[in-house]
Amino acid sequence: MALDNKTDFKYIGTRPERPDGLDKVTGKARYGADAYAPGMLHGAVVRSPHAHARIVRIDASKALALDGVKAVVTRADFAQDLEGEDWNLLENTIAGEKVLYDGHAVAGVAATSALIAKDAAKLVDVEYEVLPHVTDVDAAMAEGAPVLRDGAADHSVPDGLHPNVVRYTEFGRGDVEAGFAAADLVIERSFKTEAVHQGYIEPHACLAQLGTDGKGELWCCTQGHWFVRRMCAALLGLEATQLRVTASEIGGGFGGKTTVFIDPIALALSRKSGKPVKLVMSRSEVLKASGPTASASMDVKMGMTKDGKLTAATGTFRMQGGAFPGAPMDMTTMLAFSCYELDNVHHEGFDVMTNRPKQAAYRAPGAPMGAFAVESVFDELCEGLGLDPIDARLKNAVKEGTRSSFGPKYKAVGLIETLEAAKAHPHYSAPLAENTGRGIASGYWMNWGGETSVSLAIGEDGTVQVGVGTPDIGGSRASMALMAAETIGIPYENVRVNVVDTAALGVNEPTHGSRATYASGLATIEAAREAIGKLCQRAADKWGIDVDAVEWKDGAAHPSGPNAGDFEPLSIAEIAGEMGSTGGPITGHHDASPTGFGGSFGTHIVDVHVDPETGRSTVTRYTVIQDAGKAIHPDYVEGQFQGGAAQGIGWALNEEYIYGEDGRLQNDVFLDYRIPVASDLPMIDTVIVEVPNPGHPYGVRGVGETGITPPLPAIACAVSHATGHRMTRLPMSPPRVLRAIQGKGVS
Amino acid sequence: MNYHTPASFADASRIAAEATGTTRFLAGGTDVLVQLRADIVTPDDLIDIKHIPGVKAITRNADGSWTLGVAVAGAEMTEHAELMADWPGIVEGMDLIGSTQVQGRATLVGNLCNGSPAADSVPGMIAAGATVTVTGPDGSREVAVEDVPAGPGRTTLARGEVVSAVNIPARGENGGDAYLRFIPRTEMDIAVVGCAVNLTRDGDTITDARVSLGAVAPTVLLVKEAAKALIGTTLDDAALEALAEAASAACNPIDDKRGTIEFRTHVAGVLAKRAAGIAYARAGGEK
Amino acid sequence: MTRIPTRTHVTTTVNGDPVDFLADPRETLLDCLRDKLGLTGAKEGCGTGDCGACSVQLDGRLVCSCLVLGVEAEGREVKTIEGMAEGNDLHPLQAKFIEHAALQCGICTPGILVATEALLKKNPDPSEEEVRYWLAGNLCRCTGYDKIIRAVLATARDLREGV
Q1: Selection from A717, A702, A560, A577 nearest residue A652 by Cα
Q2: Same domain, A408 and A499
Q3: Neighbours of chain A (3+ CB pairs under 8 A)
Q4: Mutate: best of A26, A221, A249, A715, partner C, most C CBs <10 A
Q5: Which of A351, A380, B63, B121 suits a disulfide with A327, CB 3.0-4.6 Å?
């Protein structure tokens, strides 16, 4: 779908109040755990205390003997004939022959109260035969490492690699050796990042009802209820459309709520007990057993001439994504060098299994790690050659027509515009305080389209309802309403956007891939246009003229061409008021898997103060500059920029999964899983750059994910400049930074 | 779990003494409820001491000393201007525990009896020379705060004994105290290292001092060598270096998810110097 | 196995209304508000007092309701997010949070509103730093806190100026 080239927007670009605001500031909005049903049971999950063990025996007799306990389910209560990713998903949902990580679910219990369910879970007796485990990516690839599962590797893995390496990729172009030979400076470094959690404040929660007739109802907090439907149907052996899934309000997701963890267990408990079952994870369960992101071990080598032109780049990216295939090494390799024009480039990626929970998507999955390594080396090249890091980036920045490091040519993109805006920003030239360093980095996410279905209906008073399938995770109802209002020419307040259940629309992919405003927005605009066509037809019929002679503007049908001025315009309310007698309801609908999504580049500037005596880092100033294509509701665009930066700050400085020698997660509470608190952060300044995406009528690009890609390298560069020591490991926790300051190396 | 609300410490002590299972006293609950929720400890008997008269009182005695009720919450201490003026180090140690919400509930005694070596309020009390009154089946006794912790999660109190008051000495003239802790974030973390310094000046010279370190050993430490490094000095650079060395030398920490042995040992010295500087300025009359 | 739960009858006041419920002593005030009184505005984000999503006022004091037992509410006054607006009149903080887009997913919003109401009562003119430290126990993962802090400062200014 082409760009309209419309610039005189009436509603788009304004900042109206979000339609769900009232419910969300009064406590009325209903999230995952806020649902109750008559006769409801409460569930609890029995989880493995071991990182790797064979399940010898599960004895639930004591639990079942407890008053109030109605059902216990184990792997035997789920589909038995699954393969491929469905099998992986089931194996992660509830263990089969082995438990594969600390917190892996083994059984589910349903009882008449939450306390009884919790007591009963403790009475389920599981006998384990403990096996050797491995949690580090490099250790898991090494000779002699414990094998998680033989035969898990796919055809991409070359012979001779450890069985824990389950996928491999290698691609590039040009002659990297010749490129390095042509460079004036070549830097090669190794980097490591730790796994971090999405850290949404709302734990996973659901309320499930499933009958022996195979018909079910599921209420859950999810980014995508059709995904939940497909996964649950597969794991329980149901027909997809017999399960109706309703998405609750969602308390954050960031990619982590695009899959299932407890929903299939709740459904199985309901099917077995014949009653509705509510299941809510504790924070500890969230951290132990819902998807963190992958961790990475990387080697990056880049060469640059003294005038700042990159000559060659290579990267090796080893990533662990827990006890299953799926670490996002494809995205890491694809996007690592995506900012730069490179004739000689080579990538290698490894997907490695370890005894950790199955990774789930986290905001630009895979991209931040690669950017950390590549942008850090770029910064060091600039430092070594005495070049300004923005000028040097401008010399290599991709633009429309540039062949990307991963193959295809870019359409219109805004990297150069973000770099120029960064250079012009007062932050970039502001003086620096003592022991403070400034870092700058760019990043990219290519965004996504995905299956999308939207229905729009005109009410009898001329107001409009829109049904979308992408849960509103950060103000998207407001964005959809703005696009519908703009298209139809009616006030924003006259549009109500509803996130509807799986029975009401065709398949919708989740709110993921930064796709909701782009794809559901595009479908909303197209559905509105279809409805406008029908409204014009009703006016044409009434006037007795051809529909081609009717023009729609400002929310009304106008006679045009030879008939212009012959009839009084008919407003949407007038046409709607008569629709029962003029042909019935007026609706618009649009289904698509749009492919015109446009990627978003961002450039961040950050100042970090480091206490030279303790190694403690404080972010003192932060500026996000990013290409939104077109900002539909600028408040929520800025909010995505700020949120991405804050999450990146956490990842860079203090967040990490810490496993003990016993393979158990050491920090399974927010006390020790240290996400940024309000007093840790400064205000986060934003600059919205708008280089329209040619694949959306109003130029929209997704904005959600790019913002977490530049912070890791930007902050690492700032700390490196503040301390005089290049930081190559995350998180840059105080003990690690202090060691660097003391010249003891980067541990 | 049985929930008790005794009306006197004698009753509280009796209930605890007669109980056969796991017993916990409930004041602010900010540790007890977390342990309950996480299945670490589910008491058979939970004894809520907040219904006992006087537990919410902050009293300045005739001699200038202070008696604090055992259910006085952190927020009530920070709101008490006179207590804050006398013992800013004790109050700021308490104030650093958890969030504003936790401050609405958490207590000095709870922090002490939880037995954590990283308890933020304990170094300040030890540096101040505070004691607690302990009521048991055989009556009451007074115990120095540094003698209460016995190791991580353990105290020296016997079954049936309950802390019934906190006693803080009179501030006296020309004295000042301070507490600093190191955490990776700005708030909400457990101390990686904590250090309290309490000292008295005669002119520019330090005449008396007590230094206490947290999170660097199985219990909060009273470090006499560190105090010696201060007494008789004007807190010159040599005294500060000697203080840092003594503080670091006293450390016997562990490597864990919050910090390393190397880091804790180094930062103990850094914090000791910084806390001494603040206490010294306060003793000299600076706010 | 037969288990006779010990349950206590608790009489308390919530948002000005007298209420009662039966509580197992192990149940938190948060459990009781949500599961027994249908007040689901307070959320459980952690259950350990680290996230603040369950913030309520207990006798005028800001607390985490996950760190208070239901039985401790006997005879006390509890105020929750549901009691913040007067009928249909939003508290100025609530209105300003909508106006400033100070929420994305909204799960932390009730706790942050309850906490900031307590702050402004105590300190009508807080600095940015004071707001940030007061709210350090209210985790927000979406916003980076920027718009939240601005909304609080703007509300405080309006209230001081009698807007």
Answers
A1: A717
A2: no
A3: B, C
A4: A26
A5: A351
Quote the CA–CA distance of B11 and B4 in Å, as a whole number: 10
Integer angstrom CA distances of residue A369 from A199, A340, A347, A622: 18, 17, 14, 20
The whole-number pLDDT of residue C5 equals: 60
pLDDT band with cut points at 50, 70 and 90 for residue C2? very low
Enter the tokens of residue B266: 């180094």
- Of the candidates B101, B109, B197, B98, the one whose C-alpha atom is nearest the C-alpha of residue B148 is B109
Question: C143 lies in which domain range?
Answer: 92-161
Tell me the CATH architecture of domain B2-116+131-168: 2-Layer Sandwich (3.30)
Single-letter amino acid code for the residue at A747? S
To the question of pTM greater than 0.95 for the whole model, the response is yes
In this prediction, the answer to ipTM > 0.95 reads yes
Contact at 8 Å (CB) between C92 and C159? yes
Given phi > 0 = left and psi -120 to 50 = alpha, else beta, which region is A308? left
Q: Would the CB atoms of B100 and C134 count as touching at under 8 Å?
A: yes
Boundary residue ending a domain (C66, C83, C100):
C83
A15 part of a folded domain: no
Both C66 and C116 in one domain: the answer is: no
User: Which amino acid makes up residue C5?
Assistant: P
Q: Please check whether the domain covering B175-283 is classified as CATH 3.60.10.10.
A: no
Number of domains in chain A: 3
Tens of pLDDT, residue by residue over B158-206, are 999 999 999 999 999 999 999 999 999 999 999 999 999 999 999 999 9
- Domain of C152, CATH number, reads 1.10.150.120
pLDDT digits (tens, 9 = 90+) for A121-151: 999 999 999 999 999 999 999 999 999 999 9
CB contacts of A282 in chain B (<8 Å) are 37
A473 and A424 in a common domain = no
Overall average pLDDT of the A100-129 stretch: 98
Query: Average pLDDT in the A57-81 region?
Result: 98
Q: Which of A574, A136, A508 is nearest to A354 (CA)?
A: A136
C39 and C67 share one domain? yes
